[in-house]
Write a structure and sequence with these properties.
The structure is a single chain. It contains seven helices and 14 strands. With about 250 residues, it is an alpha/beta fold.
């Protein structure tokens, strides 16, 4: 019998959820997606999460994890970029647990994706320090050391050559500035070399939609650290949230 968890991934445009086989990291049944309400207030988003759970038919006794687009410190949203500003200072664990009628565990979306890659994806069974970066509109990051997450890292906001790193090296900036793969790779080289110098990691994993085209830029990078594309892509947030909620429920 499958060991089942449930993950919900809250984003600026959509709220997605699925039941997850925690032995394999694969979805059980179809993923559910509902548009993020506007305005995306805590109560409105919580109501959508409840609808996602209802559509999934999630059993009452399974762990529910929520991937959230902000740093979360002891359950509280520190600041918000992609949802309504009224989220700032909210205890999202308490809010969602009350609204969904079960214990809910929330974590930052990049952290959820990173945990999924370590547990089931490109970094599975890889020892030491793994740094997962998501190259999208910005640069998200997750640092996992021998399976233990160091939460809420914001390595996309490192200052490099006087610039916030993600304003130069994100996939969004590549598109906005019309950079060739070669020119963008030079910026990525500067970024990953700096992170490598700071952390001396054992593995970099590169996620985000652009990782589907990894052959166009990863071979252009010259690092001491092995760097590989993510394996789970858009499913990573849901899978990582389900995995972490299950782990916390058994702790």
């Amino acid at each position: 019998m499958a060991h089942v968890g449930c993950g919900i991934d809250i984003g600026g445009s959509g709220v997605k959820g699925a039941l997850v086989d925690l032995d394999s990291g694969e979805f059980i049944g179809e993923r559910v997606r509902i548009e993020t309400p506007q305005p995306s207030t805590p109560e409105a988003v919580a109501a959508v999460c409840a609808e996602v759970l209802d559509r999934l038919g999630a059993p009452q006794d399974i762990a529910v994890g929520v991937s959230f687009p902000a740093p979360i410190i002891r359950g509280v949203v520190r600041f918000m970029a992609n949802l309504d500003q009224s989220w700032t200072g909210v205890d999202v664990n308490a809010l969602l647990s009350e609204r969904l009628g079960r214990r809910v565990h929330t974590l930052n979306d990049a952290d959820a994706a990173g945990l999924a890659e370590v547990a089931y994806g490109a970094a599975k069974d890889h020892p030491g320090t793994v740094i997962v970066t998501t190259l999208g509109t910005g640069i998200g990051s997750a640092v996992i050391v021998d399976g233990t997450l160091v939460p809420n890292t914001e390595l996309g906001h490192l200052e490099i050559n006087g610039h916030d790193a993600e304003t130069r090296a994100s996939s969004g900036q590549r598109e906005a500035q019309g950079l060739s793969w070669k020119k963008w790779a030079k910026r990525l080289q500067r970024y990953y070399s700096h992170v490598e110098m700071l952390f001396s990691p054992d593995l970099f994993v590169v996620g985000g939609g652009v990782s589907k085209k990894h052959e166009k830029f990863l071979p252009l990078l010259d690092l001491h650290t092995e760097i590989v594309p993510a394996a789970l892509l858009n499913a990573a947030g849901i899978i990582g949230a389900a995995y972490e909620a299950d782990r916390c429920s058994r702790a």
